[in-house]
Every structure is written in structure tokens, then in C-alpha cells.
Amino acid sequence: MLKFNKNRRKLIVDFLIINAVWIAAVFIWDVLTGYNPTIDGNNPNNISLREINDLNLILGGVFLGTIFGLLNLFIKRRQERLRKKSYGRIIFIYSITHILLTVLTIFIIGIVSELIITGEISKETVLKIRRFVRSSDFWRIFAFTYLVSVGIILFQIINQKFGPGVLLDLLLGKYRQPKEVKMVFLFLDLKSSTTYAEKLGHVKYSRLIQDCFTDLTLAVNEFDANIYQYIGDEVVLIWPYEDGIKNAKCIKIFYQFKEYLQKKSEYYTNLYGFVPQFKAGINGGTLMAAEVGVIKRSIAYHGDVINTASRIQGLCNSFKEEFLASKLIITDLAFYNSFNCSFIDNIQLKGKKEKVDIYAIKQC
Prior knowledge:
The structure is a single chain. The protein is of the alpha+beta class. It has two domains: 6-159, no CATH class; 166-363, Alpha-Beta Plaits (2-Layer Sandwich), CATH 3.30.70. The chain has 15 helices and eight strands. A hairpin with a 2-residue loop joins β2 (226-231) and β3 (234-240). α2 (49-77) runs antiparallel to α4 and α8 crosses α9. It is elongated and about 85 Å long.
């Protein structure tokens, strides 16, 4: 039985969703244009014109969804390269590609339709398709498909910008009024960042951070995390509490990230002279979530849970540990027993009245 990791499953789900969107879009086009096909000759197997039209619409949606779904996957796999190109160049190349793919799709649909209707492909059919591609009807179809395609890409970009699920929460106004939520917060910070910044210089150091956070994205997708904030060389990951604790996702993600960095050790060593290492602090609990901002709107979290997670991470150097956690997280993770946890100390954290039990986490 074939097994896919979470990243590949996500790509497959995205591909299927894009296909469904294109099928729906093609039927919307049919409604808007009031398309009513007329076919000369007898229809094989007593197929009605409406049935042929519906079949053609489904084929059109599937072919468009498949072709542009594959294009979408191609773009996703080359996001880092595309990020370095100008937007004007990307839009120009995408527009040319879209025209070519639309022409290809129309030829495929025309040929398949002819096979279904007559059982053969004639030279006249190919000539009819060529004439259609040069007609104004083709450019109307092109404009519609271009809008659909760009709409899908824009939605994905906006969804990525806010984080999975956040855009929908904003649209629904879920956090217009502050709301109590229970979350897990994981703070990740680059070790020896000051030393590396001085050694590499600002430009090369920024590229290092870009590379690290690109590799982190793979782990983020695999363990269903959301990226709450990037703060310099630090990143904050979050989960709804039960989801983050389940199967120890909030712990496993750190070691998976380490593994991704290690797999690219040759790349990092050749380019930067070392393999980056990160330290982490984790905490969870109940806090407030609220929609904030007008010009730049986002969902913000307020409460002691975040401050404690940040300060726990800040103790990693003092205790010479790479991963520290609060007692609450350790207690709730005890069921999974996937890691070695050792008590470090009962610490008075800055700004807190009560002391906090700190634990070190290590892989078994």
C-alpha cells in the first residue's frame, strides 16, 4: 500500500481541490454564456445534446484542473527561485504559459469530444479547432480561465500570508471580540546568532535565515503547525492545544526540523561554513485571541502563556540545553512517552509571581 507523508498528501488534496474548482468554474461559464451546442448528424448511442454538453463541460473542468493543477504544483516547488524574480517578469511568463495551456486544453477537449460524438478524428475537426482558437470566443474563454487561475493563486498567496485557517477566521469575524482559546506556543531561535551575523555579514546572514525558515516550512506542513510570527532569527509556531499535544506534534516538529537541516548539511557547510542549530522553548495554556489592526489586520494572542514560552526558550543557553518545556506540556505529553524529559529547576521567571518548573527534552 502506498504511503505518503503529510506534505505530499497536502499537495494531492490541493490538486484535487483545484480540479473541483475548475469543474465548478466551467459549469458557471456555461450558465453565464448560455452555451447551447448544435451538432450535425446523428448522435451515437442516442446521446442527447445536453448530455454531450455536460460531458464536455466535465472534461473541460477535469482537463483544465489537471493542467493548471500541475502548473500550480510546479510553481510551489520553485517558490524560492521565483521569489528572486521580479513580479513583472513572473506575470509575463505566467500569462504566456496560460495562453499556451489554454490552447492545448481546447485542442484536447475538441479531439476527445469528436471521438465521443463520431468515434473518429477528422482533419476538418482539427481545422475547426484552429479557427476557433483564432476567434473572439477563444479570447473570452481565455479571459475567464485567466481570472479563475489568478484567483486560485491569489487565494493561496493570501492564505499563506495569514496562515492556514486564519483567512477564513478573519472573513467570518471569529475574533472581532476577544475570545478565550487554549494554545501551544513553540519558540525557535537560532543558536549563536550574533556570532554568525558578525561572521557572515548582514546580506549572507539574511540568506541563511531565509534558507532555514524555508526548510522549517516542510516540518510546519508535516505537523500541522501555524507560523504565528517571525521575529528576526526567531520564529513562533502555534497549535490549538489538543492538536499540538496529539501524537506529540509540538515536540516532534523540532527534531524533524533538525533532521531537515542535517540532510542539507553539505549545502549549509559549503555556503555558510556551518550547519545551523536552533534552540526551543515550549509552553501552553489558556489565553486571549483577538483581531487587531486596520491597515495590517491579523489575529493576535495576549496572555502570560506567550511570555512564559519566550522566557523558557531564553533559558536554553543558561542550562546548556537545546529544548526546554514547562511542566504543563510535559505532564500532558507523558502519555506518548516518545522523549526523555528531565527536571531542570524551579525557576522564578521575570514578570511572574509564581515559580515555574522547567524540564529539558531529549530524543530517546
